[in-house]
Write a structure and sequence with these properties.
The chain is mainly β and about 160 residues long. It is about 10% helix and about 35% strand. The chain has one domain. The relative contact order is 0.22. Bound molecules: calcium ion (CA) (2 copies).
């Protein structure tokens, strides 16, 4: 596992109220895909280290790599996953959108959204997560939209797991 993003939500009391916490933990080692990506942007020496934030835009190189960012441009707002509460007819819950490479499988990357109802004793599962769409790729990047219903559970935690094979 090389990346985790947590999202917690409590039932909103208004349509636009939510409690969200993002935390990215990169646990991993540099692999060929990252090295190729770094060299494509001309980063060398210290600037090519995966924990470094070159610009800085608040995102380290490795996270930029996972979400198709540009390590030389301040693009954090457009590359990080985003989420919001939806209260449409027929669906009440959380929508979670993240970016991935359209050729993520060839790059050896796997993205999985999982949720649980309890961080201490709960089991992470994809059972409650519905992938509701993936955009047409633009410059090799597509956005993937996921939905998690909040109709039943009072509290849920969401994570995006990124694995490199
Ligand atoms: Ca950066
Ligand atoms: Ca950037």
């Amino acid at each position: 596992m090389i990346g985790l993003i947590f999202f917690s939500n409590k039932p909103p009391t208004t349509s636009d109220e939510t409690t969200a916490t993002f935390k990215v933990d990169n646990i991993g080692v540099e692999k060929d895909g990252y090295r190729t990506w770094v060299s494509r942007f001309g980063l060398t020496g210290t600037n090519s280290v995966w924990t470094v934030d070159v610009e800085p835009d608040g995102i380290d190189n490795f996270t930029e790599y996972l979400f198709g960012g540009d390590p030389t441009k301040s693009d954090a707002a457009s590359i990080l996953p985003r989420s919001g509460m939806l209260n449409d007819t027929g669906f009440q819950g959380l929508e979670y959108v993240y970016r991935r490479y359209s050729d993520y499988e060839a790059r050896g990357l796997e993205y999985t959204v999982e949720c649980t109802t309890n961080l201490l004793i709960g089991t992470w599962s994809t059972n409650e997560v519905v992938v509701s769409g993936a955009s047409f790729p633009i410059i090799g990047i597509q956005t993937v939209t996921n939905r998690i219903s909040t109709a039943v559970e009072d509290e849920q935690f969401l994570r995006l797991k990124v694995e490199e094979h």
